[in-house]
Design brief:
Layout: H1 2-17, H2 45-54, H3 56-73, H4 88-108, H5 111-125, H6 135-151, H7 158-173, H8 190-205, H9 211-224, H10 226-229, H11 241-263, H12 278-284, H13 307-315, H14 322-327, H15 343-347, E1 363-366, E2 372-376, E3 386-390, E4 406-410, E5 413-416, H16 424-428, E6 457-459, E7 474-476, E8 481-487, E9 496-506, E10 510-519, E11 524-532, E12 535-540, E13 543-548, E14 551-558, E15 566-568, E16 584-592, E17 597-606, H17 620-623
Antiparallel strand pairs: 1-2, 2-3, 3-4, 4-5, 6-11, 7-8, 8-9, 9-10, 10-17, 11-16, 12-13, 13-14, 14-17, 15-16
Helix pairs in contact: 1-9, 2-3, 3-4, 4-5, 4-6, 5-7, 6-7, 6-8, 7-8, 8-9, 8-11
Length: 624
Amino acid sequence: MKIFFLLTIVVSGLITIHGIAQDQKEVDLKTLTEHPRILLLKGEEETIRRAISENPVWSKMHEAILRESENIIALPVLERIQIGRRLLDKSRECIRRIFFLSYASRMTGEEKYFKRAEKEMLTISSFSDWNPTHFLDVAEMTLGMAIGYDWLFDKLSDESKVIISDAIVKKGLVPSLNIKYNGWLQATHNWNQVCNAGMAYGALAISSEYPDMAKLILDRAINTIPLPMEDYKPDGAYPEGYTYWGYGTSFNVMFLSAIEKAFSTDFDLSQIPGFLETAAFREHMVGATGLPFNWGDCGPAGSLNPSMFWFAKKNSDPSLLWVEKNYLQGDFSKFKNDRLLPAIMIWGKEISLDQVDEPDTRFWIGQGPNPVCLMRSSWSDPNAVYLGFKAGSASVNHGHMDIGSFVMESDGVRWAADFGMQDYESLESKGIRLFGRTQDAQRWSVFRLNNFVHNTLTVNNQLQLVNGSARIDHYSGKPDFSFATSDLTRVYENQLAALKRGVALVDGKYVVVQDELTARDTTTVVRWTMLTPADVTITGRNTATLKKDGKELFLRVASPSKVNLKTWSTQPTTDYDAPNPGTTLLGFEVKLAPGKSAVFQVMLLPQGTEKDTKTKIQTLESWR
């Protein structure tokens, strides 16, 4: 105990020195209940049982968790097998197995679930370490172990309690006190959220045995997690995109929910401007196809997210679950790999999906480090037109050179697409230094990450400027002309004298993408590109037809400049870039004389709208 008290003094001093928090908030451990004290207190299982008996959705979800718990029992126990610099897949499987099994044990009382959870925890406790050099691995492992230790405490033998709590402290919490490993305390991105959540869960779990350490970790967490939460300002747009929203925000919610349950307050953290609003960002980021606007380091698919039920409850707004309601159709076993899935039974138990109506707006705008504008013609029509547009900067965490990019859907097809991320290990194993953010960083040599393959402009075959940024300057959500415009000049500052882009959804029927630019004092070649999974046929100098899944989209360019549409291959030319089958780059190149200005208006016309368009080009200034 003395060594932990000494560490408390040392690390508290470090926190003050680094200025992490001026007005320190502190927890009072005296208010903590006995185990279980994390997320779901003793006796609260009954509220879940009531929801299961009254609501078929929660009954199906409960049964799906139990079925997967049975499958987990049949698996070999986890082994400490590291891939590259990460143990993260094992840490995530630790959470999944222990959370599922602990839930099953508490809800059914059946010994088999407890026994297997205990076996997993004892095995993980015997690992040499939890890989502190990549601290996300430690954080997730600690969180999973903490849930099992806390939820199953009354069933664990004294010997198992000592082994598991010792591992949580020595392999989880103590490394977080080492400045070699805790740089995430100053981070403004998902590492802070995930690591603080994992450490807080560990601290809550062992707070009776090690109160000094627990208080240190918890005080540190509530005073440092506001750093990434500030990035949700002002409207809730998450700068790391859809997939990392699912990571950072979910763990942030896991943290807030546990803290509020334990101390009857979240210390006003959820009231940080933009945080509660971020649920709308998540909802609007998903198109009519169910696919997300997958800019940045993002996966290709949308997914159910348990934390949305926490947000719906906090905001008293069931309509935030419109997309989640759609995901909850059909086979519930498709959610079995979501390691946080049991939390949906805690956060969603009082919500009936019959109460979930369409959101009252089809237009959403969010500023911040990576501003976005999202619009659609309908929430309920699977053939709706959907348009997503982003500004921002490539310098943000997990950012791409995609400033000015967009995605577009109609008739159930994603016509204008984004590759999203490439698996990190596939690049790092080839020696790619993936996470540099300077202009000359090796990151930008990766095909999927630079501007050459995004739905934006490339000037003189150069990269967008990493230190450039763009806001969404003007916008409107009027149904007959929803639009957003952005001045992108700073992103091309050494390449163009001026560049503005606007995107619009006209009458809820078709999309316009318009660029207004001026060359610098040299001859300039501008390339306009759109990535598509469709089959492309060039039908004229400025027209093309796209076909996919029996549907058609017509692309037409209007410009005073001479435009000749063409296509480019998306196949890689290096041994480290991922293959991109079934995709094409469609666009055009225009050569501008020194100082010359140009306007390009590209119309994306779903079937049946070819004759609805206005051919005259209106300036972006007039869009206001």
